[in-house]
Amino acid sequence: MNKGDAILRLLSEIKLELKEVKEHVEQMQIKLDTFKQQNQVKNKMEQKKPFHTRNIKGCLCI
Fold it and tell me: Taking the model in full, what pTM does it have?
């Protein structure tokens, strides 16, 4: 194997690793988007709940 072949092999390996990293980042982005959507739904539900405060033993509880 000459130097040119070795360089091409390394470049091919790097390309494959970059592809795997890209796929992993895309999966993480999908999960992040899902968490954001769930958080938005949760926040909307919390906004619809009536706001109650009680004073129990001198403690303000919400």
Answer: 0.59
